[in-house]
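Agenda item 2: farnesyl diphosphate complex prediction
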Amino acid sequence: MPIDGGSAKIPAHIGIIMDGNRRWAKKRGLPAIAGHRAGMKALEKIIDNANEFGVKYLSLYAFSTENWKRNPLEVEGLMGLFRLYLKDKVERLCARGARIRFVGKMDAFDGDIREGVREAEEKTVRNGAIEVIICVNYGGRQEIVDAVNRLIAERMESPVTEDAVRSKLYAPDIPDPDLIIRTGGELRMSNFWLWEGAYSEYYFTDAYWPEFGGKELQLAISSFSERERRYGAT
Ligand code: FPP
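Presented output:
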């Protein structure tokens, strides 16, 4: 589906902070988990839309290092959805030629989830249509601290360079996000792609995540397409 009659610049990598699931549920008198379930459906659809638009990398912030502090029932519900996603949705992604990767500190998850992640990554590793990166137990500050610790462990000589830090990030082969979208009306980064997002363009919308679909993605890409990126130069 062409955007702006085919003239739009399509960002190679779009990152999304999927916010507003609980408010979406609350507005409808539903429990928080119903919002997350609707959020998972929105996630599935947006992968198809991004693929159609020609986006090469789509990263989605599904669970932050801070989300463990939520009500244990909600955390348990989110883990249930994570399991369901690995069990039921990966096949569909694979059929669409998508590669899936999970980025974050996996050691915090139960063994069956870690195994599901490993299998999903292995099954889709040769797919090239779109790369879907799901950030789970991810925190941008933690990622940078982990990179520095890896450099220290390898006795990297000082001065440490940007290239050296970058090479130790969780997924150094993925290009930096060109566009980061945040739904749900808040205007902050919340620890997402802190290093990688240094020169990203940002797009904020009041739509709650479960309401965000192909049309909204199209608007975000159009807005990106009109901007001039200067990377600090004149
Ligand atoms: C933010 O909304 C959303 C989350 C913390 C969870 C996002 C999870 C999914 C979209 C589905 C799960 C998918 C996988 C693969 C694990 P919020 O809960 O902070 O909403 P609020 O801002 O209205 O409180």
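Discussion summary: The mean pLDDT is 95.
Owner for follow-up: CH.
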